Amino acid sequence: MTTPATGADREREWALLAARAASVKGGDDTVVLDVSGVLVITDAFVITSGRNTRQVRAIAEEVEARLKAEPGVAPLRTEGSAGAEWVLLDYGDFVVHVFLDETRRHYQLERLWADAPRLEWEPVGSS
C-alpha cells in the first residue's frame, strides 16, 4: 500500500518536472534549489539558462506546457517573456527562472541562495 503524496511532495515533483522539461529544450546548468528554509514566499527555485532569446522562450514554453499537463498546475504569473533575458514562471510554491546566459551570470542567483540545498534530478534521456 502506498501512502498518498503530500502537497510538498507534489510541488517538489512539479519543480523536478520543470527541470526535466528545461533539459528537453537544452537548458544549460539547470539546478533546483530548496529555498523553503530561507524564504517564506516559495519553496523551490528552478534555475536554467539558454544561449539566445529564442532558446530562452522555447525552454519557458516547454516548462509551461509540461506543467500545464498536470491537473491544477498553472503559473500564477509569468514575467519577462517579451525580452526573454529572464523569464520567470511563478507557480506559488516554486518559481522557474529561465535566463539568457549572460543575464544569469550577472544576477548569480545560485550564489545569492548558496545556503539552499540542491535537489537531485535526472535530465530527460540521461539514464
Please outline the major beta sheet. 5 strands, mixed
Number of domains: 1
Uncertain runs: none
Radius of gyration: 14 Å
The number of E-state strands comes to 5
Report the portion of residues in β strands. 15-25%
Overall body shape? globular
The CATH top-level class label: Alpha Beta
The total of helices stands at: 4
In CATH, the architecture is 2-Layer Sandwich
What is the distance, rounded to the nearest whole angstrom, between the alpha carbons of the first and last residues?
27 Å
Q: How do the strands of the widest beta sheet line up side by side?
A: 1-2-5-4-3
Sketch the topology as an H/E string, one letter per element: HEEHEEEHH
CATH topology: Beta Polymerase, domain 2
Residues in helix, %: 25-40%
Structural class based on helices, strands and sheet pairing: alpha+beta
The CATH homologous superfamily is named Beta Polymerase, domain 2
Report the mean per-residue pLDDT as an integer: 92
In short:
This protein is α+β, with helices and mostly antiparallel strands.
Please, could you describe this protein's structure?
With 127 residues, the chain is of the alpha+beta class. It has a single domain (8-112), classed as Beta Polymerase, domain 2 (2-Layer Sandwich), CATH 3.30.460.10. Helix content is 35%, strand content 23%. The chain has 4 helices and 5 strands, in the order H-E-E-H-E-E-E-H-H. It has helices at residues 7-24, 53-68, 101-107, 109-112, and strands spanning 28-34, 44-50, 77-79, 86-90, 94-100. Strands 1-2-5-4-3 form a 5-stranded mixed β-sheet. Helix 1 (7-24) packs antiparallel against helix 2. The radius of gyration is 14 Å and the shape is globular. The two termini are 27 Å apart.
